[in-house]
Amino acid sequence: VSAGCAQPIAPAVLLDYWLADGDASALDAVEEHLMECDSCGGRLRGIAALGEGVRRLARAGAVEVVVTASFLAHAAREGLRTREYRVPPGGRVDCTVTAQDDLLIGRLLADFSGVSRLDVVASQEGLPERRIPDVPISPDATELIVAQAMPMMRPLGRARLVLRLLSHEREGERLLGEYTFDHSASS
Amino acid sequence: LAEAPGVRHTDADLAARVAAGDREAEAELFRRLGPRVRLYGLRHFRDRAAADDLVQDVMLLTFDGLREGKVREPERLASYVLGTCRRVVAAQWREGQRRQRILQQHRHELTAIPSEPEPPIDLDRLAACLARVSERERTVLVLTFHSDRSADEIAAELGMSAGNVRVVRHRALARLRGCLEGAA
Description:
The structure holds 2 protein chains of 2 kinds.
Chain A: H1 11-18, H2 24-34, H3 38-59, E1 65-67, H4 69-77, E2 82-87, E3 92-95, E4 103-109, E5 118-124, E6 130-132, E7 143-147, H5 150-153, E8 159-169, E9 172-183
Parallel strand pairs in A: 2-4, 3-9
Antiparallel strand pairs in A: 1-7, 4-7, 5-6, 5-8, 8-9
Helix pairs in contact in A: 1-3
Chain B: H1 11-19, H2 23-45, H3 48-67, H4 77-90, H5 96-106, H6 123-132, H7 135-145, H8 151-158, H9 162-183
Helix pairs in contact in B: 1-2, 1-3, 2-3, 2-4, 3-4, 3-5, 6-9, 7-9, 8-9
């Protein structure tokens, strides 16, 4: 198989192959195809490049994203310096970010049992309220862990950020907690 | 080994010429198969240097096999190379001495490791695209590619099924690709 490909491998299958996720015999078949097909190999390189880009952005704290304990453990193994603020429902914390910090993490404690869909509403003075729908959280979790976008946080001066966690339920929305972050630039 | 436009020597042709000591055929085979072996190495090692080492190991062993008449089906050379890849990866430590011997013997024959150009990624643009996918998709992508978590592991952490994680993962990557191409 050369330039084109008569039987291109589906993107999802290529992704599973790259991640070594799937049935061993299916992965072997992909491997055999790739050893003869530069077209599918090129598409696999595209997937790998995208994944590498995501990895680099996450490592640099470039995007706001809900993460898990395994993300923090991996970041620690990579030697990243993480500044964390753990806040209980109804709590308030003074916070900052320094030039030495690689990641800024908010840990919002709450009881998520029975929660099937969770929205986060973020409010900051002078900015329109922002709703983040369907945030991933396990009903067994005891905290929602959010990695802030460092490019947004580093230049931020004094600001109050309020986060509200809302559970969607049959009767409507239920407030799980409100969390106040009083941010100031590091001195 | 000049190829006329539109004419491509088969692997079997090249294999026969390599077996006969044709250095130009060796170089052509190296250019053709090297990038595929390198991609195999990247997939298994996640490390460019290790992938480059694998290309050297596998291609030298392949040329060695061709010269010694060990390749029984030259028309299925790609399968032979893949088998060699698998053996080298599985036995990379045990075969350290053999690798050194072959490298010492033939290293001069190899020029730069052939590699396909890696697709360029504009990280600023990718960050903008990553900010546009859903929170669930972003989390799954980050746990997959940053934290090296499997679908099963992500499923356990996020209270999803592994099948759903795979669907979200694939959909998110497609969205990213679409966003990048649309923004180009």
